[in-house]
Amino acid sequence: MERETLFIAFSTQKGGVGKTAFTVLLSSYMHYLDGKSIAVIDCDFPQHSIMEMRKRDSELVFSDPFYKRMAFNQFKEIKKKAYPVIASNPIDAIEDAEKLIAGSAEKIDIIFFDLPGTMNSKGVVKTLREMDFIFAPISADRLVLASTLSFASSLNENLITVGKSSIKGLYLLWTMVDAREKTPLYDAYTDAIDELGLSILNTRIPDTKRFRREMDETHRPFFRSTVFPPDKQLIKGCYIEELVAEIYQIINV
């Protein structure tokens, strides 16, 4: 029987290209703005970055009247609590996800998995092979390109094409795109990626500092939060809406 909940991971072998940031951004966008039922399994052991972010966000909501009022108004409007974030590890991630599904009062549409940035971590391959879709952020940096293409090609050759996984699709995603870079450069890279038999999303995410903005005591607009969606003004020009729409089309949600 096919699982109703989709398992999705932003995964790469190179740090600093946004796998955790995209996991949080899309989870919050889909859950709070689009009405999807989302959960996150944070198996990036031992740092558990998303779990730590949830703790910081929750503390601000409980202690700061500004955020407390925001949370009240949000719940009043969308009738949804914050999505669950479960601290796990690559070995137990799938089992923890199945427990979460079994214990949920409502159907969970998507569970995002945040995995360590290396295939050498025990259990990573075991968890990746259970994903329905994998999105690998990539930038126009030779080291990042080489590492990510090696990672994607390995998954494609050893798991996907030989039918040894649940993976329905593996897609690269251009991120940290420098507006000063010429478009033909990315087109040339994309052609090379096509020749490797890999797929890449049409949406390209620009390099912008606004992705780093989290909730803080200044109450300025923020982009990353596990309890609120990204600020609508900050979303403009970041192509997050286009990215979500393209992913929905791929995963058929």
TrEMBL record:
Pfam families: CbiA. Residues 8-216 form the CobQ/CobB/MinD/ParA nucleotide binding domain. InterPro entries: CobQ/CobB/MinD/ParA_Nub-bd_dom, DNA_Partitioning_ATPase, P-loop_NTPase. This is Cellulose biosynthesis protein BcsQ. The lineage of its organism: Bacteria, Pseudomonadati, Bacteroidota, Bacteroidia, Bacteroidales.
